[in-house]
Write a structure and sequence with these properties.
The chain has a 7-stranded mixed sheet with strand order 1-2-3-4-5-6-7. By secondary structure, the protein is an alpha/beta fold. It contains 8 helices and 13 strands. The structure holds zinc ion. Zinc ion binds near residues 76, 164, 182 and 259.
Length: about 260
């Protein structure tokens, strides 16, 4: 392995957090998982993160054809905007997408139109670039309880509505950790103190469903996870404590700047 780029962090057990650089540093993470010469990306950030993802892959000594899966946790553009462009660089990879999100990865026009209505064309171009679709034959839909093997390392998919109806979380049996996308909440590393990390529920429109989110968080917690890999931002350990914040009755009252 050559030196990792400064924006990538080795979390051990074949997991690397990659700062996608979206909006600011240490705000939006994608992950690379490596298992005996096979690799998967979980979330991608936007198109502008793709060079970072590919450079990290190279730094850990893997070739593009060794990537088997690209797995967006959900199809919001800050996490999945780069899926199509990344897939075009990875000849052997399949995109594994929640069934409610799959068609939007194949034809991103509705996602683009929705985001353009909110942000305007100039901001769309600046933040997201030109969104690329994934050929339909390279998209696989997940289902609740589905497992995938990354060279023998089992990944399990859970349907986790609440932040978005097109959201799944991915359980890594090796580290007993969930890749939680925006389901478990937001927890930025610069707010860590001696008392540990701090977390706020994800309450971003437009599909925010507080009851469903609480149920999804409870379901994640029922696995007794050792850690969570958040998109905003990176790994947290104090899972049961943070889970109480994430699913508390105050949910819905918090403002949120991301998601
Ligand atoms: Zn989101």
């Amino acid at each position: 392995m050559s030196t990792l780029p400064s924006y990538a962090q080795d979390l051990g057990d074949g997991i690397f957090a990659i700062d996608t650089g979206f909006h600011r540093d240490v705000f939006d993470a994608a992950y690379l998982m490596v298992e005996n010469g096979a690799a998967a990306f979980i979330d991608t950030g936007t198109n502008f993160a793709v060079p970072r993802l590919l450079a990290t892959l190279e730094a850990v000594g893997l070739k593009r054809q060794q990537v088997q899966y690209v797995i967006p946790t959900h199809v919001h553009l800050d996490h999945a905007g780069g899926v199509g462009l990344l897939m075009s660089e990875l000849p052997k990879a399949m995109a594994v997408v929640h069934p409610r999100g799959a068609r939007h990865m194949i034809d991103p026009s509705a996602l683009v139109a929705g985001a353009t209505a909110v942000y305007g064309e100039e901001e769309m171009a600046r933040s997201y670039g030109q969104i690329v679709g994934v050929p339909a034959e390279r998209v696989t839909e997940s289902h609740d309880g589905m497992t995938l093997s990354l060279n023998g390392r089992e990944l399990q998919f859970l349907d986790t509505p609440g932040h978005a109806r097109h959201h799944h979380c991915i359980w890594d049996t090796r580290t007993r950790g969930f890749f939680t996308g925006d389901t478990f909440g937001l927890s930025y590393r610069e707010f860590d103190t001696a008392k540990g990390p701090w977390l706020l529920p994800t309450t971003t429109p437009v599909q925010f469903e507080p009851e469903k989110l609480r149920e999804s968080v409870q379901r994640l917690l029922s696995y007794q996870p050792a850690c969570m890999y958040l998109t905003h931002y990176s790994r947290v350990r104090d899972v049961q404590k943070l889970g109480r914040a994430s699913s508390s009755s105050s949910i819905g009252w918090w403002p949120s700047a991301a998601g």
